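Thread: Modeling a multi-component assembly for a lab meeting

Hi all, long-time lurker, first post. My supervisor asked me to bring a structural picture of a complex we are working on to next week's group meeting, and I have zero experience with this. I have the sequence lines for every component (530 residues in total). Could someone generate the structure of the whole assembly? Inputs are pasted exactly as I received them:
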Amino acid sequence: MPGFDLQLLLHGQYHDWLLAGLLVSLKLAALTIACALPLAVVIALLRLSPWRPLQWLGATYVEVIRNVPLIAHLLFWYFGAPELLPDAVKERLYAGSYEFVAAAIALTLYATAFMAENIRSGIRAIPAVQLEAARALGLGFLLAMRRVVLPQALRITVPPLLSQVIILWNDTSIATVIGVGEMMYQAARVESAAFHSVEAFAFVTAAYLAGSLALTAVAAWIHRRWPVRTL
Amino acid sequence: MRIRRFAASRAARNLPPLDNSRDAMKIKLRFLLATVLAATTFVSVAHADQLADIKKKGEIVVGVLGTDEPNSFVDPKTREIVGYEVDLANAIARKIGVKATFKQIAVAARIPELQQGRVDLLAASLTHNKERESQIDFSLTTFVTGQKVIVKTSSGIADVPQLAGKKVLTVKGGTQEENVRKAVPSVEVVTFETTQQAFQALQQGKGAGYVNDEATLVNDIAKLGPAKKDYRILPTNLSTEPLALGLRKNEPALKKVVDDTLAELEKSGEADKIFLKWYGPTTKLQFDKRSFKIDSDKI
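Re: Modeling a multi-component assembly
Sure thing. I ran the full set together rather than chain by chain. Output:
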């Protein structure tokens, strides 16, 4: 059993591969979080809207997406969905790095379903009388939500949303199945090229751990900066 | 092992006073990391003699791909794993006097599965190369193939150098990625979990070429039926790959039985028959004759 070769992680070709992987993972996670959070608010509002068909639409989205495993979403958006597009569009898509695009779409839609449920719970934690009072003062549904309910609800939702964001960060590793060059992919590459599995996966473990702890710190700061203020 | 002892002793030396929860947290994290490292470090538990263990168990567990016609694949009628490498492994099991149990494994998992003792023998289209010799032992070479690239005829690519700057697709964990990068340094490589996914991606136009062992490529194209005229195998070999069975390191008794069995198959003409059964003129692959002999474990 060879020893732990730290040099391999500090410089050289394998270091470059792993670092490139880390960068892709970060990009994928940042893009997905940025898209999923606002989308989740929209889905949550759909589910709570006073209009039935919109409620159904939101509920259908959540149930369809969250009851299918993430790996199936990834394979669908990479191998399945684009085949329905016209040839010219397909060619343009495939000329770029469609692996990354497919992963971003699949992860965003998947994370949105879970985050929407968290946000909906947060909204429901605000006493209904607040919405009623806002409406009585003449605010419309959306304005009442935006100015009265959501600012309180989102504060309540920070801890569960944090869990969801951490799950999302870790879930970016599954994108390796559709050939996205993220961290897991690069670690596997180091493993097959040089059999330095321990070093490669130690790097990956430390990077996911560090990323998750950083997210926890950000969430703790948000929680302090905007504490829960609900009657 | 060294890492685990190192990390554990460090953690022990840093034991904090009980009231210091921040340090305790740090220690916990360090322990967690150490455990993770230790778990990935545990590789092989020492066996007295693997051959004796196999005889005692009454079975030899053979790691096969099971998705790689004609080396090992699931027969659609009998639902059993059959193929060229399966026949070789069965001959070895018969020689030892035990039952062969076939376990399907992924390309990238082959060597770890063997090292961790979850399979006794690899018969999984395994390339015998110098880098791998430090990890595992190899039997006599059981097959020789070249790695090649398929492209769509419509791409206009006539040979390997024209792949420069293009995206090629292949499977994770094999020698394909390394070989194509050596042949065309500027190529972009995207790898998948199975060869089928890589080939699927080529058919959908997600890359210009698909790299694999020639025998597998011929077989993949044959499955397309009339559409196979739309694909072309590029003439230049990326590499010549000697395939062999994989064994755990330093198991001389098992290696001897395996090599003896293979040498006997070669001498009796049985090896030729097995080759023709899976690769011969009546199969999809339509090789006329064997271009190699099973007689050496040197590369």
